[in-house]
Amino acid sequence: MILIDLTGKTALVTGASQGIGAEISKTLHRAGANVVINYFDDPQGNNVVAAQKIVAELGDRAICCEADVRNAQAVQAMVAQAVATWGSLDIVVNNAGIIRDRTLKKMTHDDWDSVISTNLTGVFHLCKAAEPVLADEGRIINIASIAGVFGFFGQSNYAAAKAGVIGLTKVLSRELARRKITVNAVAPGMIHTPMAATVPPEVQAKMIASIPLGAFGEPQDIAHMIAFLCRDLARYITGQTLHVNGGWHG
Fold it and tell me: Known catalytic residue: 236?
């Protein structure tokens, strides 16, 4: 019996060219959804190549779309493209994010602004653009972080952004409840991704020692939670922050 069947649904996943976002896109596609794979056009051109590779791998029911989530007009155009391609938008996954870790003393204004505008304002941009066209009983899932609850050293910008995502999630769950649209946040712990790979090995070792399950998670651990939240199985869950972190915190 197929418990998670998203056939006929359209999902838009930001920051989907690598890491957790890529795995979310693949998982939703396997469940039957049409998938818009968003990517940021980096100067080296790595993201577009990665996004196109995923689309080629998935075949039909997948397109890639460039948009900088910091740009409201670009996000609106991306939403319009999703609706024009498949006629509806049912699932929004706000996954795009960056880190610029520094202590407060060393953090520049640009470090702060870049992280807040991508990780928090970008979520607002997509939620606002998607809300008018999102199907009733649709899903908005925002990727938060254990950092937004725990508050790691040197991550004041990242932690503030992710805490803001959690607050935004709670408010939108109330505002969109009349249309039976659920809005939830998923807060990953440490997951094996290119971003996590930037953490020094000695710091990784200390983190693993604090995780009851004794290991970092994998991108599919987050993707499976997303898929669950997208289906009727989770129709009565909204306004929540679901922690996927091996028992570390939450």
Answer: no
